[in-house]
Design a protein that fits this description.
The protein is an all-alpha fold. It has two domains: 38 residues, no CATH class; 204 residues, Lipoxygenase-1, domain 5, CATH 1.20.245.10. 51% of the residues lie in helices and 0% in strands. The longest helix has 25 residues.
């Protein structure tokens, strides 16, 4: 709640940094609102997202279905699906211990009140959409919790912590243009043909705007020194043996995925994992390090 409040106060409100330094300006929130109208909670599950975007031929229900990826050398999908199914198994093991039957789901007043608030308050504009899970059985709970954990951990890590490596050099990612593209036959167009770099730098954001964006991107790309990464917990979080065993299995699987990511990044046949500039794809590497490491999946959004 704190990080969301700070984001609304400093970044994404009408007078926030995002509105002032990115090209849509005052229309940024309006554009987000239009896009939100077609938002679907169920599409946030990684297998569903990949299918919706045409990146999967059929359904992906387990890691045995990885061969259905349209692009086999697709690091986000390959690493992400490993993380997704690890999260899903952990959630299933945990929920199945505390909810033995579907009736227990239906009769839990706190669970039902949470789900009602999530839909009707958190997503009031979409509360009547038919795709919402009904939260009447254990599968509904497992599916919903897996999606929420995925969004707040791995999905956010994949889109957030690589920003500075690319956008820290501002010409890679100018957020606004101070001039329109010149039309053919004009003096400005002739200058563009003669010296495109000079025209480009005169067109992109001012030095102050550029510095502001770079500072924001740098801050957003940092891992805190006390970051809690996916699967990490404070001691004595429970005394129940089965959830403790499930948590240990989850962390063991995450460690295996780390090893697989590092191994794949050394495979010369997988050209999309490193690229010509020799920067490996580590955005879904479960653990990271303080500062800008471009890897590490926090337990939840912390910046």
């Amino acid at each position: 709640m704190t990080i969301n409040a700070l984001a609304r106060e400093l970044l994404v409100n009408a007078d926030g940094i995002i509105e002032k330094t990115f090209f849509p300006g005052k229309y940024s929130m309006e554009m987000s609102s239009v896009i939100y109208k077609s938002w679907n909670f169920m599409d946030q599950a990684l297998p569903n997202d990949l299918k919706k975007r045409g990146m999967v031929d059929g359904d992906i229900n387990s890691l045995d279905d990885l061969d259905r990826l349209v692009i086999k050398d697709y690091p986000y999908a390959v690493d992400g699906l490993k993380i997704w199914f690890a999260i899903e198994k952990w959630v299933r093991d945990y929920c199945s211990f505390y909810y033995k039957t579907d009736e227990m789901i239906k009769e839990d007043p706190e669970l039902q009140a949470w789900w009602k608030e999530l839909r009707e308050v958190g997503h009031g504009d979409l509360k009547n959409e038919p795709w919402w899970p009904k939260m009447q059985n254990r599968d509904d709970l497992i599916q919903s919790c897996s999606i929420i954990i995925w969004i707040a951990s791995a999905l956010h890590a994949a889109v957030n912590f690589g920003q500075y490596a690319y956008g820290g050099y501002f010409p890679n990612r100018p957020t606004i243009s101070r001039k329109f593209m010149p039309e053919k036959g004009t003096t400005e167009y002739a200058e563009l043909e003669k010296n495109p770099e000079k025209v480009f730098f005169r067109t992109m954001a001012s030095q102050l705007q550029s510095l502001t964006v770079i500072a924001v991107v740098e801050t957003l790309s940092n891992h805190a020194s006390d970051e809690m990464y996916l699967g990490q917990r404070l001691p004595n979080w429970t005394t129940d043996s089965i959830p403790l065993e499930a948590s240990e299995a989850f962390n063991k699987r995450l460690a295996e995925i780390e090893g697989e990511i590092l191994k794949n990044n050394l495979d010369k046949k997988l050209k999309n994992r490193v690229g010509p500039v020799n920067v490996p794809y580590n955005l879904l590497h479960p653990t990271g390090a303080p500062g800008i490491s471009s890897k590490g999946i926090p337990n939840s959004i912390s910046i």
